[in-house]
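thread: overnight batch results

M.L. [08:02]
morning all. the overnight job finished for the chain we discussed friday. pasting input first so we're all looking at the same thing
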Amino acid sequence: MATIKHISSKNANYGAAELYLTFQHDEFTNKPVLDDKGRMILRKDFRMETILCGDEDFAIACMRANLKYGKNNRRGDVKSHHYIISFDPRDGTENALTMDKAQQLGVDFCREHFPGHQALVCTHPDGHNHSGNIHVHIVINSLRIEDVPFLPYMDRPCDTQAGMKHRCTASALRYLRSEVMEMCQRENLHQIDLLNGSKNRITEREYHARRRGQQELDEHNQQILPGHCLSVDKFYYKTRNYFSLLNRSQQRNQRTAIMYVCVGNAKIMFLSSLPVIFLLMISVRKSIHVPPSLP
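M.L. [08:03]
and the structure it wrote out:
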């Protein structure tokens, strides 16, 4: 079930993209992971290739092109576009998808759909959730340095001219999703319908909010009873707005709950949903008591 995601960046430091792709970073803070001597740690495995950069690296080539055309010199300008194509974890074992093959698919996809742009294509063997999904990062300079043919997702004649900038509109992203689906069908890879979406779909903001919340609770529990086996005595629960969607068109809140499990005098808490808490309370048939001093 390959997917494609788009991120636009106003960061004028093009070298930051290369550092992120080649060195290990914390998945929550996006800060580099350092060793005992304070040095950045190189990623264990990746493939990288540049396009239309000549003998220069990606950052130097992009800055030289911006100076030539007088573009991307304002703080609010979108300097680069970052596309991520993530493949199904089953493709590696069932469909013989390798890092080299994924890298070549990413390079071909970039040359076909982002012609005339300086690009950095990098493949990683795994994602943040450690599910083993191979994924390809495609970072392009927003500025186009060559004249190109009129592509299906373009809507203005000037979109083909050198010195103009790439625009990722809603129709363009929809077109790229359909192209990813066709690529997976052509290569006999697992794929889902990217155009109609899913009823159970969560946003990127929701996913990372849940991950951060669960990590904080796990760290809290580790400090209370490290290495101990827990036996449930009583259940204390409290609901709160853990996070709310910022998309006003949806106008809905995602509610989650903190569950407190008392072991002796210590309180262990973890993230859960209300139905799960109610089922657990019924299954153990314990009386429920919410203390007034509950945090």
